[in-house]
């Protein structure tokens, strides 16, 4: 099966490169870590003009993510990579953060949603909670080029929200969109997070849909939205649908119809978000 996949990757990526395409969709292709080396070879060779790589819904683990991190340490062309819905754990997350903080300035979009990274869901179980939180703070506060970060359905809770809030308060990062839907965030996490969002000058869109946020957290987020508006830094999108309060549906209606965290993949949403 690996040889068949390799030929498919070669043909698909090379064909798109020959056509002058800048986006490759290898989502739901059955890709595993062993195939990443070949994909990287192609991206370093004749297909070096590819800017968007979609690898969602495969079987990539932290080793595959680490191989991409090594590639990104010297690459300056790739602008977006979708690694959502794989089996990447904290090891792969930390590898990606390290390269984004230390060397890569070109990647603008990183989606790691639906990977088991935080809390008891971590598929690696090698990094401590403190190490994961430290790296979460780093990617929010010190990544120089990253604009979109997808961490929906990654096992994140209130402690991680506190880390993100502190990082946003520094106003040193480049993120404009953060996706935190379908986690275990409660009123406490939403309230703490709202403080960092209120202080931040760059973030313009945040997804907190389908968490465990009730009236208290929703009120705190609403006050944050109002504060940003009054300061002349309005948010474009604050998605709160699917939480534990009817009021969240009202704030979900604040969505611009061109922005949808629910369905947008890179090809249709990336340019608008960035």
How would you explain this protein's 3D organization?
- With 274 residues, the protein is of the alpha/beta class.
- 45% of the residues lie in helices and 9% in strands.
- The chain has an eight-stranded parallel sheet with strand order 1-2-3-4-5-6-7-8.
- The N and C termini lie far apart (37 Å).
- Mean pLDDT is 85; it is low at 247-274.
Which terms would index this structure?
single chain, 274 residues, alpha/beta, eight-stranded parallel sheet, 8 strands, 45% helix, globular
Order of helices and strands: HEHEHEHEHEHEHEHEHH
Return Rg in Å.
18 Å
Q: Average the pLDDT over all residues and give the rounded result.
A: 85
Low-pLDDT stretches? 247-274
What is the tally of helical segments? 10
Cα-to-Cα separation, first versus last residue:
37 Å
Give the structure's gist in a few sentences.
This protein has helices at residues 2-18, 33-44, 62-72, 90-102, 129-142, 158-169, 187-199, 215-230, 247-252, 266-273, and strands at residues 23-25, 52-54, 80-82, 109-111, 148-150, 177-179, 205-207, 237-239. It is α/β, with parallel strands linked by helices.
């Amino acid at each position: 099966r690996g040889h068949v996949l390799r030929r498919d990757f070669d043909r698909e990526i090379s064909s798109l490169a020959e056509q002058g395409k800048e986006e490759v969709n290898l989502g739901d292709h059955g890709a595993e870590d062993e195939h990443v080396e070949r994909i990287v070879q192609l991206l370093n060779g004749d297909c070096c003009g590819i800017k968007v790589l979609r690898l969602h819904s495969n079987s990539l683990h932290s080793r595959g993510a680490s191989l991409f991190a090594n590639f990104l340490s010297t690459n300056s062309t790739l602008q977006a990579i979708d690694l959502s819905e794989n089996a990447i754990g904290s090891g792969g997350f930390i590898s990606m953060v390290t390269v984004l903080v230390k060397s890569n300035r070109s990647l603008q979009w990183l989606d790691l949603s639906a990977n088991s990274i935080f809390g008891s869901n971590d598929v690696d179980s090698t990094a401590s909670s403190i190490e994961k939180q430290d790296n979460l703070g780093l990617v929010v506060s010190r990544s120089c080029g990253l604009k979109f970060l997808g961490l929906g359905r990654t096992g994140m809770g209130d402690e991680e929200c506190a880390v993100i809030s502190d990082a946003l308060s520094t106003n040193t990062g480049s993120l404009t969109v953060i996706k935190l839907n379908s986690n275990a965030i409660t009123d406490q996490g939403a309230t703490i997070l709202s403080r960092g969002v209120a202080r931040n000058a760059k973030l313009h869109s945040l997804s907190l849909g389908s968490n465990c946020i009730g009236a208290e957290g929703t009120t705190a987020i609403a006050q944050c939205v109002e504060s940003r508006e009054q300061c002349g830094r309005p948010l474009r999108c604050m998605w709160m649908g699917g939480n534990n309060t009817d009021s969240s549906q009202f704030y979900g209606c604040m969505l611009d119809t061109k922005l949808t965290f629910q369905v947008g993949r890179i090809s249709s949403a990336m340019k608008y978000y960035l």
